[in-house]
Design goal:
The chain has 8 helices and 5 strands. It is an alpha/beta fold. It has one domain: HUPs (Rossmann fold, 3-Layer(aba) Sandwich), CATH 3.40.50.620. The protein is globular and about 55 Å long. The N and C termini lie far apart (39 Å). The relative contact order is 0.18.
């Protein structure tokens, strides 16, 4: 579903999962004309600099509301084997399943949908793109099925007009690549794209070595945008 394609109401409310990273910021920027509400999750991630980056981006985008949901208890559920939250494994430089946080987007979208149902938002968005295929909960098939499940959870309210049916959307659902997502987002955000945080580690600068930093660098290069991100290496 292209954002807004099924409804022409430009004031339609949308809840966006806003991590503070490049992809979610650019996805939110694609929703220009919508009344945006951002939700950011603190789940015990090593890359905790995402949260202040998300706050800055919410302000830049003029969001009508922004919440930071503290779900740090999830870290104890993931244990020590997850590279993004646990201390028992290092952060890899290329894709490895250790960086797949179990059912992360399912958790995030459920909470975002609860807010959307409560405020009458018709759209829940997150920043998955076509380069995210290794992550099952980024794929369009997941987003469509999960959207159906969320609406089933509120089927009586939707039927009786007490809840607005929601649609789950990501750039991936339109076949958009990371570099194209960056191009589109940068047209609206300008230099603010460099204030996003992608690194899986929590240092003062982007480490420049982890898988996410590599993807960030590659996206700027492929998009033809000079990367002004400061990297430690």
């Amino acid at each position: 579903m292209r954002p807004g394609a099924s409804r022409q109401d430009t004031a339609m409310r949308a809840v966006v999962v806003l991590s503070g990273g490049l992809d979610s910021a650019c996805a939110a920027a694609m929703l220009r004309g919508k009344e945006l509400y951002g939700i950011t999750f603190s789940y015990g991630q090593k890359g905790s600099r995402e949260v202040p980056a998300a706050r800055r981006m919410a302000k830049k985008l003029g969001m009508a509301g922004h919440k930071v949901a503290d779900i740090g208890f999830m870290k104890s559920l993931y244990g020590s084997s997850n590279a993004l939250t646990g201390g028992g494994v290092g952060v890899p430089g290329t894709f490895d399943y250790s960086i797949v946080v179990p059912a992360r987007n399912a958790v995030f979208l459920s909470i975002a949908a609860a807010w959307a149902f409560s405020i009458g938002a018709g759209l829940v968005a997150y920043g998955a793109h076509s380069g995210d295929r290794p992550y099952p909960d980024c794929r369009p098939s997941f987003a469509r099925r999960f959207g159906a499940a969320l609406n089933a959870a509120e089927s009586d309210g939707v039927r009786d007009g007490l809840r607005r049916r929601i649609e789950v959307w990501s750039p991936y659902m339109d076949g958009i690549t990371k570099e194209e997502l960056l191009r589109r987002g940068a047209r609206r955000l300008g230099d603010a794209v460099f204030g996003t945080w992608s690194c899986y580690r929590g240092g003062r600068l982007h480490c420049g070595r982890c898988e996410s930093c590599a993807n960030r660098r590659g996206a700027f290069e492929a998009a033809g945008i000079r990367d002004r991100t400061r990297y430690a290496a």
